[in-house]
């Protein structure tokens, strides 16, 4: 083995680790992250410094971008020209920078994502703001470091009279870390800096009275201050940012106009995305999307279809497109060659400390220069006072050096003073020049005294910082562009909608609308009424109800999912309008079917929501469990495999019931679930909450099956459970192919139940005909079935104000007056209710009587004439 002292043995693992660490730090410090003091990455700093060296101030002639890039590459930045030009381009874009630092001439790209023209075609120079970033750089205010080949020197940081890091923000990805700092309003930043300058212990709350939040060059609206506060307090936060829009009304339709876009959103791609979503019908109601933007600003037009609700379409656009984005704030920057996440107060204090350092160094430089000049003037003054002797000495001296040495020796002058005397022109001997010299010297002595007093007083330094900041604020007016809404939930249409009485109609085919109840004027008995809705030939009003605009509709589907819709979000239509398909208003899955629509004005704990499944499971959950509305809906019941929801009802709780509620995660008590799901489903369970006395009124539940069986049991037999529980057995089946087809809530045994078979046979039966049983039993006969009746289709509660509507297999709708159907006992088949002509009834529903359907005023107050009669 060769012996050589220069050879070092190391493992390849250690070598790779060391090399990668060096590379990582090079990327972090030298390329990807901004300095916390001037807010610039090295490439940006080098571009601005090179432009300053080329004397490309705000008043200079524009210079080709290629020349600037070449200067930067040749002297300071040994990387690709494309990277330098891209950085130069971004510094000139008014949609990327809150205040651009490069004044570009030519095509520097657009908000549509268009790239800039080649660097040989564009020109650039500095802006007025850039001059403030570079001001006093020639006064030894910052350190200069060698460039990549030690042939030049470049600034380690710029003096930066403006808080550029927060003003224009920064983004970058390093190795293992990233930064994303949003831009801000310069006016607000300076006001915040003045607060910190005057009160070293100023709180974040005091500063945020002035710095409200980020201010993006493209405007938009920030929703919620929580993300802003998190970002300012910890250095990390998530900010919701939306486009700013307005609605224009046109005959029979609305137009959504986008005036401002979220930061860094590509307008052309956004339009393409919206058009694609509209084409695929992922968002309903959009007829056309076009771009009408010009040099005056952005105008993106989304034209809606005739029956579309602008607010609903806009909400879907916010949900599905970049009309709403989340800006993740990471206030990571470099300080003392180390990356760190800063809070807002730390960044403000760091900038003020940087300015203090710059002012001290500038003052020292000015003091030294003033003392040098005063020293020369003092020498010239001595020479003028002894001008004859000075001239004689110079004339007798054999050469320059001898004359200089003679002056230094005879008049006790320094070498610099002697040199200045020898270089002095004869014009300085005039009386006027002598007076100027004395005045200049007097002024310098005052300046020296002032500069020395500044270095001795921190208060004076802070006053200089304050004056400079106010001067910057006066030069660069920067009103806020981005609106900030206090709370994300504050933008709620409910605050803008009056809580009026509405009539909501829902047709069998799922068309829904609302009409102000004042359009249905109260009429005297015998009036013809007014048409309430125009339906398709195979459709009818299945249900309607009066409610307030702020009430909630709950839609329960066969998959056990529950959705909400505020009444004011239902399209308002005329009395004769067909309405809008409900599937366009809530986020139903493709294979989901609405089984029940339940209105409620509140989510009071004295009410419950009862669910009934095809396999006989019943569950009751307190209505208050569903008060937290989500647009995507919630799971209402845990369904077994091959089971589905049949219907759901709101029921009033018995007095004194225990209300069970879910925990914070929406899951109920685990031990309760186990006891419920392991219960002997075939048995007749005992009453959990106690059997009411015979003279005590009790609410009851009726469940009916396809094979004509039913159970009627007291409501308190169903214990209240958490929202996502499975439920308990409501009925057991005698036949394997049996299933639940309907349910009813009975408050009195005097109520009547209408049962209908699939071959049109039906009957009315009073509730007391059905024997009270226990939950989970096989029940009693609800309707005697035979070949003439077919299977039982369902049951509805008899109401004198309602008709029965039956739907046949061919889609035929048959209306029957409920009062015309004969009463019959429980264990009977009934009479012909619907003439099906060889078809079958597939579903039944109650609907308003024709006269009621037209006037829709039977729930209103009686007229004075009616009262008297």
UniProtKB/TrEMBL annotation:
Region feature Disordered, mapped onto this chain: 846-869
Keywords recorded for this protein, A-Z: ATP-binding, Coiled coil, Cytoplasm, DNA-binding, Isomerase, Nucleotide-binding, Topoisomerase
InterPro entries from the UniProt entry: GyrA (IPR005743), GyrA/parC_rep (IPR006691), Gyrase/topoIV_suA_C (IPR035516), Topo_IIA-like_dom_sf (IPR013760), Topo_IIA_A/C_ab (IPR013758), Topo_IIA_A_a_sf (IPR013757), Topo_IIA_dom_A (IPR002205), Type_II_DNA_Topoisomerases (IPR050220)
Top-level EC class: isomerase
Subcellular location as annotated: Cytoplasm
Chief localization: cytoplasm
SUPFAM superfamilies: GyrA/ParC C-terminal domain-like, Type II DNA topoisomerase
Manganese in keyword set: no
Miscellaneous comment: Few gyrases are as efficient as E.coli at forming negative supercoils. Not all organisms have 2 type II topoisomerases; in organisms with a single type II topoisomerase this enzyme also has to decatenate newly replicated chromosomes.
PANTHER family, A to Z: DNA GYRASE SUBUNIT A, CHLOROPLASTIC_MITOCHONDRIAL, DNA GYRASE/TOPOISOMERASE SUBUNIT A
NCBIfam families, alphabetized: gyrA, PRK05560.1, PRK05561.1
Complex formation: Heterotetramer, composed of two GyrA and two GyrB chains. In the heterotetramer, GyrA contains the active site tyrosine that forms a transient covalent intermediate with DNA, while GyrB binds cofactors and catalyzes ATP hydrolysis.
Family as reported in the entry's similarity comment: Belongs to the type II topoisomerase GyrA/ParC subunit family.
Name of the protein in question: DNA gyrase subunit A
Organism taxonomic ancestry: Bacteria, Pseudomonadati, Campylobacterota, Epsilonproteobacteria, Campylobacterales
């Amino acid at each position: 083995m060769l012996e050589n002292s220069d050879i070092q043995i190391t493992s390849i693992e250690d070598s790779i680790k060391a090399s990668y660490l060096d590379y990582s730090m090079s990327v972090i410090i030298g390329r990807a992250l901004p300095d916390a003091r001037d807010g610039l990455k090295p490439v940006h700093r080098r571009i601005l410094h090179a432009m300053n060296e080329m004397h490309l101030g705000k008043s200079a002639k524009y210079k080709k971008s290629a020349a600037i890039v070449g200067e930067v590459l040749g002297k300071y930045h040994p990387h690709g020209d494309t990277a330098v030009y891209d950085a130069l381009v971004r510094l000139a874009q008014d949609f990327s920078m809150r205040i651009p630092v490069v004044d570009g001439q030519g095509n520097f790209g657009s908000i549509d994502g268009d790239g800039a023209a080649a660097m040989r075609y564009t020109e650039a120079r500095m802006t007025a703001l850039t001059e403030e970033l570079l001001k006093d750089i020639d006064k030894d205010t910052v350190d200069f470091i060698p460039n990549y080949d030690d042939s030049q020197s470049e600034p380690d940081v710029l003096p930066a009279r403006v808080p550029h890091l927060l003003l224009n923000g920064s983004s970058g990805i390093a190795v293992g870390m990233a930064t994303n700092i949003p831009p801000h309003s310069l006016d607000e930043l300076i006001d915040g800096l003045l607060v910190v300058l005057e009160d070293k212990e100023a709180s974040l709350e005091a500063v945020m009275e002035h710095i409200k939040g980020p201010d993006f060059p493209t405007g938009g609206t920030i929703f919620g201050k929580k993300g802003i506060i998190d970002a300012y307090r910890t250095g990390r936060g998530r900010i919701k940012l939306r486009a700013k829009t307005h609605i224009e009304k046109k005959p029979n339709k609305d137009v959504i106009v986008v005036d401002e876009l979220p930061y860094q959103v590509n307008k052309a791609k956004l339009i393409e995305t919206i058009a694609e979503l509209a084409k695929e019908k992922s968002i309903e109601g959009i007829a056309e999307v076009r771009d009408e933007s010009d040099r005056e600003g952005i105008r993106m037009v989304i034209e809606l279809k005739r029956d579309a609700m602008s607010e609903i379409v806009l909400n879907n656009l916010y949900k599905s497109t970049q009309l709403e984005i989340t800006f993740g704030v990471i206030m990571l920057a470099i300080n003392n060659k180390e990356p760190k996440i800063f809070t807002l107060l730390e960044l403000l204090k760091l900038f003020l400390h940087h300015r203090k350092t710059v002012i001290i160094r500038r003052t020292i430089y000015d003091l030294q220069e003033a003392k040098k000049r005063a020293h020369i003037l003092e020498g010239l003054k001595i020479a003028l006072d002894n001008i004859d002797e000075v001239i004689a000495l110079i004339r007798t001296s054999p050469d320059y050096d001898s004359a200089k040495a003679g002056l230094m020796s005879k008049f006790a002058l320094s070498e610099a003073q002697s040199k200045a005397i020898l270089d002095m022109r004869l014009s300085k001997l005039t009386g006027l020049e002598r007076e100027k010299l004395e005045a200049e010297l007097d002024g310098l002595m005052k300046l020296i005294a002032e500069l020395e007093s500044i270095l001795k007083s921190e208060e004076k330094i802070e006053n200089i910082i304050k004056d400079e900041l106010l001067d910057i604020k006066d030069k660069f007016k920067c009103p806020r562009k981005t609106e900030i809404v206090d709370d994300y939930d504050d933008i709620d249409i409910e605050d803008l909608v009056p809580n009026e009485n509405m009539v909501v109609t829902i047709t069998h085919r799922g068309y829904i609308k609302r009409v102000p109840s004042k359009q249905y004027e109260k009429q005297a008995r015998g009036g013809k009424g007014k048409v309430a809705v125009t339906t398709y030939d195979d459709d009818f009003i299945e249900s309607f109800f009066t409610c307030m605009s702020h009430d909630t509709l709950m839609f329960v589907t066969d998959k056990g999912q529950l959705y909400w819709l505020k009444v004011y979000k239902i399209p308002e239509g005329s009395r004769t309008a067909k309405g809008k398909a409900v599937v366009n208003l809530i986020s139903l899955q493709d294979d989901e079917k609405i089984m029940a629509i339940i209105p409620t004005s509140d989510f009071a704990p004295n009410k419950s929501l009862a669910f009934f499944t095809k396999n006989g499971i019943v569950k009751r959950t307190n209505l208050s469990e569903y008060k937290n509305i989500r647009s995507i809906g919630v799971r209402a019941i845990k369904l077994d495999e091959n089971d589905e929801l049949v219907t759901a009802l709101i029921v009033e709780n018995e007095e004194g019931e225990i209300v069970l509620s879910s925990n914070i995660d929406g899951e109920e008590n685990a031990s309760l679930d186990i006891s419920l799901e392991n219960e002997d489903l075939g048995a007749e369970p005992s009453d959990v909450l106690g059997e009411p006395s015979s003279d005590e009124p009790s609410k009851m539940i009726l469940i009916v099956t396809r094979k004509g069986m039913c159970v009627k049991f007291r409501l308190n037999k169903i214990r209240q459970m958490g929202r996502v529980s499975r439920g308990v057995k409501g009925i057991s089946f005698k036949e394997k192919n049996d299933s639940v087809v309907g349910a009813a809530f009975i408050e009195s045994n005097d109520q009547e139940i209408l049962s209908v078979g699939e071959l049109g046979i039906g009957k009315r039966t009073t509730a007391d005909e059905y024997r009270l049983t226990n939950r989970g039993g096989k029940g009693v006969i609800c309707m005697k079935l035979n070949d003439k009746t077919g299977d039982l289709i369902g049951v509805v509660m008899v109401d004198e104000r309602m008709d029965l509507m039956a739907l046949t297999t061919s889609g035929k709708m048959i209306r029957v007056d409920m009062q015309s159907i004969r009463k019959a006992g429980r264990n009977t088949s009934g009479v012909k209710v619907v003439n099906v002509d060889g078809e079958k009834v597939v579903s039944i529903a109650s609907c308003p009587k024709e006269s009621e359907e037209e006037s829709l005023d039977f729930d209103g107050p009686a007229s004075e004439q009616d009262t008297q009669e």
